[in-house]
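Notes to self, Serine/threonine-protein kinase 16:
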Amino acid sequence: MGHALCVCSRGTVVIDNKRYLFIQKLGEGGFSYVDLVEGLHDGHFYALKRILCHEQQDREEAQREADMHRLFHHPNILHLVAYCMRDRGSKHEAWLLLPFFKRGTLWNEIERLKDRGSFLTEDQILLLLLGICRGLEAIHAKGYAHRDLKPTNILLGDEGQPVLMDLGSMNQARIHVEGSRQALALQDWAAQRCTISYRAPELFSVQSHCVIDEQTDVWSLGCVLYAMMFGEGPYDMVFQKGDSVALAVQNQLSIPQSSRHSSALRQLVASMMTVDPQQRPLIPVLLSQVEALQPLPPGQHTSQI
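result:
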């Protein structure tokens, strides 16, 4: 682990014996901030995620997020450049230094197109879906699930390739629930860590004796695919209106008719968003289906976004 020193001069910090210059704030959440910094040793831009840690549990969760990043060396999963814990008296901040993606997230792209009255083409959607599936396949292969897949957690590289980020909600893929207390604890955890409009039905009302598995990610991926097709997630408006998302996800989703999309793509999103998790296709199956729909053989690029 690197050691972050105090601010050395106005707007610079040191991580792993390398100095970084603060450029601007990129965003903030409930207990974290993301800043744009420049490495003075290489001239590259990075995103510095600072997580406020009030308790030991916060520190452990931040360490776990860093560990999740380090598990993977995959082009469709965000890699960790450096990690350190910074102490400020009794307060602590976990610092995750991450690559900076100037194009932002998939949601940024969807919004940009909507502002112009446009949408992603089916070829673009399939290319993005292919990369997301490959990232999820790598996560599932190691026995984990992402648990918070959504368009704002998918970055876009310079050539439009999707990169999965925000691994703070990742946990073991298969969770054996034995008893009502464990079921309620998992349900409460999901309410805090899994975005409501992309959360799988089985996480809203966890059964006392069941297995929650990586198929929660397949549901979320279906919601992401829907958002790429129609410019918003299938339950975004339900949530914004204040209606019950928990109730809405219990009914089979109706996919709007659109001349922009093939019947195969419509069938694909419908299969992912089946209420019964055991009826959803596994990621390797989805991957082969998406590859079969590609206009060019995998590895050759169609038009980028």
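- Confidence is low (pLDDT under 50) at residues 1-9.
- The chain is about 35% helix and 20% strand.
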